[in-house]
Design goal:
Length: about 110
């Protein structure tokens, strides 16, 4: 299965703690809104409340089908501690057939 046969996205968000990030990742995968979640530390520099902020955060990359992106985004927003959480979807333009087939199967339930 190629990305052109079925469209996929990687939805990204961040959390302030590893514990929160892992809990959200597990909840998303358990609900079958994503087949896989990767959690890793990042350093974020951004504007917030009129100042440049510099913070350690935990990024979550969630692999899913494009048609689940809105539901996934709402799920993340409802459970997030940030006032304005990052929820960004980036299209997958290609991937190994086996992985994309697995991704489709695990989010089809």
């Amino acid at each position: 299965m190629t990305a052109s046969e079925q469209r996929f996205v990687v939805v990204t968000t961040t959390h302030g703690s590893e514990e929160q990030a892992r809990a959200l990742a597990s909840a998303v995968v358990r609900e079958r809104l994503a087949a896989c979640a990767q959690v890793y530390p990042v350093r974020s520099v951004y504007w917030w409340e009129g100042e440049v902020q510099d913070a350690e955060e935990w990024r979550i990359d969630l692999k899913t089908r494009v048609e689940l992106a809105d539901r996934l985004g709402a799920f993340v927003a409802e459970r997030h501690s940030y006032e304005t959480p990052e929820v960004i979807a980036v299209p997958v333009v290609a991937g190994s057939p086996g992985y994309l087939g697995w991704l489709a199967a695990e989010t089809a339930r």
